[in-house]
Amino acid sequence: MAISIALIILLGLFGGYLFSLLKLPGLVGMLLMGVLTGPYILNLISPEMMTVSGDFRKIALIVILLRAGFELRRDTLNRVGRAALIMSAVPAVFEIVGVMLVAPRLLGMTYLEAALLGAILGAVSPAVVVPLMIDFMDRSRGTKKGIPTLILGASSLDDVFVIVLFTVFLGMIGVAEVNPWAKLAEIPLSIILGIGAGLIPGYLLYRLFTRFDWRPPKRTIMVVGTAILLTWVEQTLEHRVPIASLLGVMAIGFVILEKSEAIAHIISQKLKKLWVFAELLLFVLVGAQVNIQVAWKAGLAGIVVIATGLLFRSIGTYISLFGTDFTVKEKLFCVVAYIPKATVQAAIGAVPLSAGVASGEVILAVAVLSILLTAPIGAVGIMVLGERILDQGERSPYLFKELRENMGLPRVGERIRSKKFDTIWKVIEEKETWIELPHTAGIVKQDTQLVPAIFLRYWMEDTSHGPGTGKTLSYRYSRMDHPFDRDWEILYDW
Question: Count of CB atoms within 10 A of residue 429's CB?
Fold first, then answer.
């Protein structure tokens, strides 16, 4: 299995780099490398690795959903909450209807089996969508109207909705005894319990982090471990109590951000570095799940069914955005962002076949084909349209975040040490502001160019003086100044 991990890392990096040279999303290259090296083509990944593939993919998905949670702000959620709720259900219902209209005739299945197929196809892939939305948020693309946040929230709720519908349709076929009304009632219940299950440990972690001054890597590991434990609770109680644990994972980050922005940003920085490895695992292993031979069996009829479903889905997505202040182009971006399929289709595509559904093999073939078609096309569409359509304000608050990360700056309340004098100080104040770039000799400056700067004030710790007395120092940090770690280092208790 160690060799398989090495191959995933090296070939995943190569595929991502190759596609980035082509100005395409690197995750598409990782996906295709997974398809190529998986058990259905070159068979380079060991059976042991494929056995634990689901766990690795879940952990990687948890990492990116935690990052999403640490980017969710209350004001932005309030602004897009209604649209996110509508988008979590309406597009999927439209897609199911579209599949039901054509699948019985083209694929020779019953209407109920077509509804089951539609429920599988109706799930947008958080594995593809969330990393791209996080990237836009990091670069302040579309954040003025909260478009990435809208798609983040809606895509997570969408998965809960369609998986419940899938269970209902599977029960109606007669494979399992299911009360459809009870199952539908589980949708709001699982959402509420999932969010609640994340808010509680999130608050406890916040209290723990404010009481003990642990190093950021240890804080990050604790957050990831708690999130994994939350998904285990969902799995353990799935037949008794419905819990949307992935929403809970995002809620952990949300509550820490609400309570302490400083701690949240420190953990988010570490998660960003962890994501480099988690991304390789996620997309290569998702690609390795794709059986190219099975997808081939779906043929042209399968492509028509998928395309019809996407057409109906796009109409549903556009309708869901009525009442928002989005432009036509921004609505078009949301439509494209809701296209990619991968995670859910790989997870449940084979369930009807193993459950004995008559059209199970056809359903699996179409599900696999949908991954091959929509994941690359959707990812490319999101990147291309996002760069052209989503706004990017000159004075974006995310530029301060980028500056803080590049400079490695501490937060208020953290202790630091002077490398030159070996003295201990504490950060007691910070201020974010915009400063003008200085004139360059011989160059006439046409327009005033502003860059972000962060002012920090330090207080020398002295047991003989209380807070508010004693020596203080103030420093400015911008792209024109020396980095923080040239003269200082951050201290932690553990």
Answer: 12
* Structure letter (DSSP) for residue 357: -
The structural domains of the chain, with segments of one domain joined by +, span 2-389, 398-491
**pLDDT lower than 50: segments of the chain:** 441-445
Tokens of 321: 């955005």
Q: Is 16 exposed, middle or buried (0-12, 13-18, 19+ CB in 10 A)?
A: buried
Name the burial class of residue 303, with classes exposed (0-12), middle (13-18) and buried (19+) by CB atoms within 10 angstroms of its CB.
middle
pLDDT value, residue 307: 96
Q: What share of the chain is helix, strand, coil (3-state, %, to 5)?
A: 65, 10, 25
Q: DSSP code of 485?
A: G
DSSP H/E element including 456: strand 450-460
Do 87 and 154 meet the contact criterion of CB atoms below 8 Å apart? yes
Q: Which residue has the tokens 């509508």?
A: 86
238/228 Cα distance (integer angstroms): 15
Strands across the sheet containing 472-477? 472-477, 450-460, 424-436, 415-418, 488-491
Assess contact for 249 and 193: CB atoms under 8 A: no
- DSSP secondary structure code for residue 85 in this structure: H
Q: In this structure, which amino acid lies at residue 260?
A: S
The owner of tokens 């556009």 is 318
| Residue 361 CB neighbour total at 10 angstroms | 15
Q: Of 120, 97, 117, give the one whose Cα is nearest residue 107.
A: 117
Strand (E) or helix (H) holding 7: helix 2-21
162: left (phi over 0), alpha (psi -120 to 50) or beta: alpha
Residue 354, token pair as written in the block:
């193993």
CATH of 2-389, one of 1.20.1530.20, 3.40.630.30, 1.10.630.10, 3.40.50.1240: 1.20.1530.20
Q: Which residue has the tokens 């702000």?
A: 73
pTM of the model: 0.73
CA dihedral 278, 282, 285, 290 (to 10 degrees): -170
Strand pairing category for 424-436 and 450-460: antiparallel
Residues 171-227 have pLDDT tens digits of 788 655 666 677 777 778 888 898 899 999 999 999 998 888 777 788 899 999 999
Residues in CB range of 164: below 8 A, 6 or more apart = 183, 184, 186, 187, 190
Cβ-based neighbours of 328, under 8 Å, separated by 6 or more = none
Burial class from Cβ neighbours inside 10 Å (0-12, 13-18, 19+) for residue 192 reads middle
By the 10 Å C-beta count (0-12 exposed, 13-18 middle, 19+ buried), 450 is classed as: middle
